Amino acid sequence: MKIVVFIQQIVSTQVKLQGIDYFDTSRVTEDDLVINPSGKNAIEGALKLKDGHGAEVTAVCVRGLKPEKALREAIAMGCDKAIGVKDDSFYTDDPLLLAEIYVKILEKIGEYDLIFLGVEEQSTSSYAVAAMLAEKLDMPSVLYAEEIEVKDDILRVGHVLEGGRKIVDMPKKGLISCSDSQYFTPRYTSMRGILTAKRAEIPTWTATDLGLAANIVGKEAASLIQVSLSNIVIEKESYIIKEGEPEEMVDKLLAKMKEDEVKLGV
Amino acid sequence: MKKILVFTQIREEKVEENTLSLLNKLQEVFKDVEITAALFGKQIKEDWIQELGKHGVKKVYAINALELEVYLSRPYVKTMLEIIKETQPMMVIASGMVYGEDLIPRLAVHHGVSCAQRVVDFTLDGEDILFHTPVRDDQAIMITKLKGEIKFATTRTGAFFINENPTGGSPEIASIDVSFEPKDMIVSHVEIKKAERTVNLKDAKVIVAAGRGVGGKDNFQIIRELAELLGGEIGATRACTDVHWIEETYEIGQTGQSVSPDLYIGAGISGAPQHMSGIKAKTIIAINTDEGAPIFNYADYGIVGDMHSILPILKKKLEG
Ligand SMILES: Cc1cc2nc3c(=O)[nH]c(=O)nc-3n(C[C@H](O)[C@H](O)[C@H](O)COP(=O)(O)OP(=O)(O)OC[C@H]3O[C@@H](n4cnc5c(N)ncnc54)[C@H](O)[C@@H]3O)c2cc1C
Ligand SMILES: Nc1ncnc2c1ncn2[C@@H]1O[C@H](COP(=O)(O)O)[C@@H](O)[C@H]1O
After folding, report:
1. How many CA atoms does the CB half-sphere of B235 hold within 13 Å?
2. B306 in a domain, yes or no?
3. Chain B contact for A181, CB < 8 A?
4. Chain B: residue nearest A20 by CA?
5. Cβ neighbours around A28 below 10 Å, total
6. CATH of the domain at B43
7. Do B181 and B214 have their domain in common?
8. A49, A211, A252, B204: which has the fewest Cβ within 10 Å?
């Protein structure tokens, strides 16, 4: 079984980016660059199948300032191969264009059975790439997976549903997007994995390698046009106690609530 | 007249609330637009059609088919494409429940365009529709426009209000011919595991809720004790119900229950939009070890600290 996992590298959401600086990454350090949490869930999904049933897992990172860092971590977790894809002409904030880039990457990879992605991208949060890719490839797919069970020739997949969970069967050739359920909780990197990752050769493919002319996936081709981006100003005045011994903090909280005449309890 | 096509979602045998609130919002923003709805199922209820009419839908494509009994991407996409072809709407939209978010991007692909997901507001700029969407864990709002004859979008759950006094009438009912092949059913439905609803949290005045940070089944004891002390109920995130630390009935959020207590205490909860969208509380208290957790953006009061040490102290003080 061959599995391709698409991950992204994002600026950790722990790093608060301010207003107009949002896309100014000059102050972003290498430590701030992390694999998108959802992508890590996808890696875990692929590695679980590899552990249980044998698979070759290839991690691919298209978005990111230093994709190589993300890909080494993917290998350290247990992925077998890694490919970075980067080109200044790519406009990846449009999920349709990103899906088109993924299609071209898969064509170049050639042979694969399953595609894994995370359910969401943290940076521009389009939440649409997995569905778009499945549709472009005309591939059986299940989104928002929470659990995967291999049953002979098929995969039995449980996925998120309002008011419960839905179980479906799908062929072993298809696309799955992984949620952050317990099943997909990412594993830690192992010592051996880290050593393997250090030595791993990670190619970087460009638009030319993929046979993509700039105007096909460049900004001018976008149909999702960004007009503005601004920080959310929280109007709510909140009282957050950040320091102190637990008892002190509780006392402070209760005192403040008393002052505000907010009742605790009915 | 210009048309907007709304994909209707049913939950617990009713037209789901987010579809109704979306209808209300669309009528507020767009004047002189006719709203058409698509409603699929194995046995569509007349009630659902009338409910849509009451909320402003003029025409309902009610498609009954065995293959449409539960949502599956392929048969639903196929049927929607036929309806789009016939109606030629200016926009196709669904509330952002799981199925809507699966369906809309696929329809967009077939029209060679992108889509806007999890929209929390629409505004108009001349002819253009501006879609407002939160990004980066709700730290920022991105405003986008869409190119193309037909716009494709989903809304975020809990974003809009339902019109409590809808005045619409009976809608026209339409149908369409669509046939399915084995290929359409390649992903097949096995079962739906419905969460048992044994406790109703809707009327609870106080809710003490825990998330993954609670760390295990046994640690729910303190949550229960605190809730009891405050005369309230307990609640949890999907992260907790997923691993059976607590019964599913206590899940709050998009896929769980919606609640509107006076007081909501959330401990060990990061504040994912899917969880927070189910909460309309007068006062929110958050306890989390991570100062950057999004739940602090919603909180009126908060403590950055370990719930395992904070909660027992809180309980003792309240008792004493
Ligand atoms: C389509 C879809 C629908 C969904 N619907 C829902 C829904 O309806 N309801 C829902 O809840 N989720 C839902 N989810 C899941 C949701 O996206 C989040 O995964 C979930 O809400 C996270 O739960 P959590 O906050 O408990 O866990 P996490 O996000 O893992 O957060 C745990 C938090 O606990 C803190 N913590 C850890 N230890 C401690 C400690 N000792 N003391 C204090 N704090 C601590 C951490 O800092 C962290 O912030 C849905 C997901 C999808 C994809
Ligand atoms: N201001 C920013 N905030 C968040 N992520 C950013 C920012 N700037 C760049 N990035 C990340 O850098 C990567 C490269 O961007 P792009 O070239 O658009 O794919 C994306 O994965 C983004 O997550």
Report:
1. 31
2. yes
3. yes
4. B140
5. 16
6. 3.40.50.620
7. no
8. A211
Among the atoms of ligand 1, which is closest to the Cα of residue B210?
A: 26
| Interchain contact B29–A (C-beta under 8 A) | no
Contact B301 A238 (CB under 8 A): yes
pLDDT tens string, chain A, 266 residues long: the values are 999 999 999 888 878 766 545 566 777 888 999 999 999 999 999 999 999 999 999 999 998 889 999 999 999 999 999 999 999 999 988 999 999 999 999 999 999 999 999 998 655 668 899 999 999 999 999 999 999 999 999 999 999 999 999 999 999 999 999 999 999 999 999 999 999 999 999 999 999 999 998 789 999 999 999 999 888 777 778 999 999 999 999 999 999 999 999 988 76
Q: Is B318 on the interface with A (CB under 8 A)?
A: yes
- Burial letters for B71-89: b for 16+ Cβ neighbours within 10 Å, e otherwise? bbbbbbbbbbebbbeebeb
B164 and B33 together in one domain: yes
Within this chain, do residues B42 and B127 fall inside the same structural domain, yes or no?
A: yes
Closest residue (by CA) to atom 26 of ligand 1?
A: B211
Is A2-221 in CATH node 3.30.1330.60?
no
- B61 Cβ neighbours under 8 A, 6+ residues apart: B36, B37, B38, B39, B83, B87, B174, B175, B176
Which of B143, B159, B185 is the endpoint of a domain? B185
**Residue appearing with tokens 């494509």:** B61
Residue among B297, B300, B270 at smallest CA distance from B139: B297
Whether residue B78 is contained in a domain is answered as yes
Domain holding B39, by residue range, is 2-185
Facing A223 at nearest CB: one of B113, B239, B254: B113
C-alpha A180 to ligand 1 mean position (Å): 9
Candidates A158, A234, A253; nearest CB to B301: A253
At A91 the three-state DSSP class reads coil
- Which ligand 1 atom minimizes the distance to the CA of A181? 19
The CATH code of the domain that includes B225 is: 3.40.50.1220
- For B230-275, write each residue's pLDDT tens digit: 999 999 999 999 999 999 999 999 999 999 999 999 999 999 999 9
C-alpha span between B125 and B197 (Å, rounded): 44
Distance B236 CA to ligand 1 centre (A): 9
Which pTM was predicted?
0.93
How many domains in chain B? Answer: 2
Query: What is the DSSP secondary structure assignment for residue B182, as one 8-state letter?
Result: G
Pair (B170, B61) in one structural domain = yes
End-to-end CA distance of chain B: 67
- Which of A 195-234 lie inside 8 A of B, CB atoms? 222-232, 234
What is the complex's ipTM, to 2 decimals? 0.92
In a mutational test of the pocket of ligand 1, which residue from B17, B212, B246, B276 has the highest number of ligand atoms less than 8 Å from its CB?
A: B212
